[in-house]
């Protein structure tokens, strides 16, 4: 099976370094590679490099990181979209409206069927938590757990609505006073 | 500054003030002979700038400035130095107004007096006395030079009972004569806020543009001095002030919103636009002849009952979260405005608190808000639609850590909506976190979903059922409902949770805590009809049962048997009440299949079969290795040899049979005794299961372990007569 090889993609300021350091701290046998965008230097193929899992980093306050994500995702082979990649949105503890609209990230993720996780790399406990989650996904992906594969949870999902439907759009909306419906 | 220096300075200030107080004749300001006056004046000014003056000094120096003994320059400098170190006496404010009435002073000094009053307004120890002079202050609007300051002061003092038609007429006349002036517009806007139907003022300005700050530097100095003098327990002082404001009988709060109050707590205090004293005075009827009783006058539950039809909701509807009396009022009111106001406030506040505040700094505040929201939902026994909306948006980017206990509790109050909406809003975000989290988080999710189902069965379902046909559902909140099948929603929800639980149990490999949480959910599902009177029974995914029955945890297997017995009870009760539909019959068949599987597994030593290819107990005999031994394989999950029950079997053999070796063949004859032994360990669900579904027929061959499930009739969907 070998050591897991993970690729963390994200521009400067998206928390790529922090995530990579935390992953290595928890499992030093892991091979963590980082790059700012795809394609890889020298136009190398991800499969040839032995990449088993991809983590896309995006910062909520940086439109540039979203654009990089958008261009990098389109370079990824379709086989990675079966539970072998994840998008991590780094809020960095921002208490203000973020620059990148949440709906756009969700639509992009839905288009490629990639889960989106949220974290704040400036908070130690959240950084550890996201690292644990990534380790979990990586282990599942590697097949280290018997009877466990990314498609197991995929079978649970059930939706008839189009992918990328905004949350709450189908909920009953409060009506104004005087509406007799 | 050391204590000695401070003391000596204080003594000097006392001396300086005494110098001015004791002066009986006009003293020269320019020229020779005024060194003492100048030094006293400079000392007062410097002390005021650095540490402020006490309330008594301010009062004394105000008397000096107003009695006319000193020249106007000195009076002006004294007034400019009246910077409070703490609060300002009410009496001082009254003296200012009475000085205006006397008309003894120059117009410049009168303006300065009003400006001083506006600068220290926030630091007055009370405003009752000043408010009593509202009529007098209004009179000074005649003086155009004083008008901007008088308008500003009136803006701060105005309450609902002060608004009179004649005052409105005066203000409109001034505006007509002078043109649209920002200070007049500002005062009219506050009048309009109380009585929008009698004043029509087009107003697009803000408070700051009505009354531009004339004395920014002066105000800044006062603020700095106050900050410097603030004691360490300043937050406690604020809390005390808030508590005092919240007690009944206190005056209405300032109309200018207090930013400091909002920063401490987003939930506003109970406040009415009228006060106790003013309500009594205006009992004859105010300008609009309203007969409502302001809520701030309610002091006990009896007051609420006595005025049940005439109570007026407070100005800040969000205060309902902290007041039990208000909650009662919200629950019975027919006033849809109150519910709409509450929803509007809630959506804004909850969104801001969850997404726009610093999590670390305001964690307790947000947690408190979420806790109160949950309590409010528990009281009303229904969720708030806007809370569901904000929560669904928040869950999309929730990391599973922030405010987790409160978020789970609010999820459990989610209203009954179509399954697709619930899936997008709640289930998919939870499933995403479920898949990559620890077993403890998974347990929390299962518990949360169990509570959600319980809430929807106990409160939401009856609410929909009790609503008149074709009309909107019985709810405090006005919601545009979509048409959907409630039964289908609940059925799909249960199926979804079962699939999720199955995936989780495969991953967590017989984790006892996780299995217990799943079994709690299954217990609830099995008793939906018997305990919550739902007109249907939902039988869950059979694979989940098969997965759980091979658990290593004896409690899991026992509880599972108990759940199957409950299903029997539910189906029997359902059959006796309503004619069974096609769906019910399908569920009964599935249930029968599981019962048959369990009986074969636990009791009849036939764990594996060739029937159901999708089952985990399906085998192809041709592929089974001979060395495994057919009979032994079939007994491997029986009550005697089940991995979860084997320790009990060993104990039974040692303690009851007093034997050192276990003979499985002999134990087959003693399996009923083994059940009795299990009862001693509170695992009586096995006995219950066997007595319910297994009927032992007296065997003619003397082989007592032959049993019969005589009531099963394969292929006959009508036969359900265990």
Automatic annotation (TrEMBL), chain A:
Gene3D superfamilies: P-loop containing nucleotide triphosphate hydrolases (3.40.50.300)
Top-level taxonomic group: Eukaryota
Name of the molecule in the record: Centromere protein M
PANTHER family: CENTROMERE PROTEIN M
The keyword Nucleotidyltransferase is assigned to this record: no
UniProt cross-references to InterPro entries, sorted A to Z: Centromere_Cenp-M, P-loop_NTPase
Entry keyword set: Centromere, Chromosome, Nucleus
Keyword Thylakoid applies: no
UniProt-listed Pfam families: CENP-M
